[in-house]
Design goal:
heterodimer; A: mainly alpha; 2 domains; globular
């Protein structure tokens, strides 16, 4: 059984990542905060008596399910909004691209220009991540950001190990291709890899 | 002879091809992992760079969750405590509470013993009463053992 202190320590360790991951998925910071809070509460309510070692898997599973619930609700809401709002004010569809964003990453410099470049690079990555298909993003985040192994990721996503590998591979390729398109070549990109296979969801 | 050579060459070429494919796949995997790690480094950097409002909100959410767990555990503990304090064995201390089966058996044995002792005393007491009654009555005690006397009582 986990103590409140253990739960608190665990949440401190994961909350920021969880928030960012959710924000990339739902593209709304306020909704992301709500989702993370819901996930935290569910973890405490339903699994507070589980050992703390099970928390990472449980929390990720809860977080992913809460995101799915959010998307379902959004789908229904969007349907009604679309029906009711007729044709006015349709969105642009894509993000605005600033040519200044295509600045290469400087690795080890604390100068303001380098910080700006890094910030812009991160912005690009975030947008590329948001553009990924949901399953690919989920696989990428769990596998590489949460450092879960293939089996754990598959268990959370409810799919086979092979699917996880495929999703991860496609996600990385898609990200690499997107970043290369923006002129970022210093992220360990291999030109062949990006151009040969490309990305398909 | 020539066909055998050709076959051997083909098999060798296939093996070489599969080795080359494996190597390519390994290299691709390494590159993928490298890219993913570089991206994750940047994302981790961004995750530490939240606004104070976001940090506060996350902290509040965390506090709520921790309070929720504390409340649940307190409730569970008090519920458990009620159950335990309602248990007779708890009156005999913590050790008794921990070895429930043994202690229950001991308690039952003690109750049975007490019951027999009480029974024993009350039986003796009854005997004494009946003896006193017989000795103090007008009829001689032998009259109650005489079957003829009972028949005579019934007929009258």
């Amino acid at each position: 059984m986990a103590t409140p202190k253990e739960l608190s320590d665990f949440l401190i360790a994961v909350e920021r990542r969880a928030f960012k991951q959710t924000a990339y998925a739902v593209r709304d910071d306020h909704a992301a905060l709500d989702i993370v809070q819901d996930a935290m509460m569910k973890l405490a309510e339903k699994y507070g008596n589980n050992p703390v070692t099970e928390f990472p898997m449980l929390f990720q599973r809860i977080l992913q399910n809460t995101m799915r619930d959010y998307w379902r609700r959004q789908k229904v809401r969007n349907l009604w909004t679309t029906l009711l709002s007729s044709f006015g004010g349709s969105s642009d569809g894509g993000e605005e691209r600033d040519p200044l964003d295509t600045i290469d990453v400087e690795d080890d410099s604390d100068e303001p220009s380098a910080q700006l470049a890094r910030s812009q690079t991160i912005g690009l990555i975030e947008r590329a991540l948001e553009k990924l298909p949901a399953r690919q993003r989920e696989a990428f985040v769990l596998r590489y950001w949460e450092e879960m192994d293939v089996a754990e990721t598959a268990s959370i996503m409810g799919c086979s190990d092979g699917s996880v590998k495929t999703h991860c591979s496609r996600a990385v390729r898609a990200l690499a291709a997107e970043l290369k398109k923006q002129g970022l070549d210093k992220l360990g990109l291999s030109g062949d890899m990006v151009t040969n296979k490309g990305s398909k969801s | 002879m020539n066909t055998h050579k050709n076959k051997t060459t083909k098999v060798t070429e296939k093996a070489k091809d599969s080795n080359v494919m494996d190597d390519t796949r390994d290299t691709e995997l390494m590159v993928e992992t490298q890219i993913a790690n570089n991206i994750i480094d940047l994302l981790n950097h961004r995750a530490q760079d939240l606004t104070s409002a976001e940090v506060q909100r996350l902290s509040a959410a965390r506090s709520l969750a921790v309070t929720q767990l504390t409340n649940l555990q307190t409730q569970a503990a008090s519920h458990h405590g009620v159950n335990q304090s309602g248990h007779v064995l708890q009156w005999f201390g913590h050790h008794v509470g921990q070895h429930k089966i043994m202690s229950s058996a001991l308690l039952v044995a003690a109750m049975l013993l007490a019951f027999f002792v009480v029974q024993q005393f009350s039986f003796k007491h009854n005997l004494e009463n009946s003896d006193a009654f017989l000795l103090a009555s007008d009829l001689p005690p032998e009259a109650y053992a005489d079957k003829g006397f009972n028949a005579w009582l019934d007929s009258n």
